[in-house]
Model the fold of this input.
Amino acid sequence: MTEATQGRRELNRVARNHDLLLAATEIIATEGVEGLTMTAVAESVGCAVGTIYTYFDSKSGLLSALQLAAIQTLLDTFTTSAESWERAISDADLDPVTAALVRLVAIGQILVAAGDIHEREFDLLQKLISTPADLTTDSDRQEVIPLALELLDTVRVFIDHATSVGALSLPNSDSSVSRAIRWAGGINGALLVSNVGIEANRKNPPLFDGQALALSLAQDLLRSWGAPLPDLDAANLFVDHLIATEQLVALRSQSLIDLTMTTGSQPPSTILTDYLIE
Done:
């Protein structure tokens, strides 16, 4: 077999993998996680069910691949956004406390806006989180956990740094990992409130605006964790400026579907520790 032939076969395989993941995400979007079956995916792309099993050995494997791609997309959004806001922080010569709070406010804004920036990926993760059934095997979950922890670690790094420079006042007995989980879990839970589906003629819909609630909760957490109010106000104003000047999300990172077209490796997703070395 020639090198050119091998290259074409690999490209064809990547393209087929792309089609399968795209079909799976569309089925989940319309039918829910419960509606995803290997047969449904095969029918959607017009191939034999057996073909799918040459790419994913089970529905669990397919779901894990979708989760990995979605998490990677969010990580890349955090990374590209951080590159932008770090340049802005440097140009403005912010003091360490305000700069630390800017990072926390900014990453909160990115997480809250994730459903708009990457609607397909965010919706997929929300549905998997809110589905009580155990849909993946232990071995497949072990493939996803490291990347999921890396996503969580971006938050932990910022919280720890803010504590170290005095932007937050948190006891040493409180685990930094636990704080990051509470932060991310609280924001995610607030976003789910939008699913209540309140009728405009019966209730006050703004009360159930998940994004507004999540942003308010993020502010409440920072205040309760000891963020000095003048510095927090300054950080909020700075992030508002970043949003107004389109610096908060510097680049629209690759979508889940684009990521599946990458051959041989995933896009880089560096933990943002480097930005915190003063």
Observations:
- Residues 74-254 form one domain.
- Residues 259 and 266 are 7 Å apart (CA to CA).
- Residues 251-278 have pLDDT under 50 and may be disordered.
- The chain is about 70% helix and 0% strand.
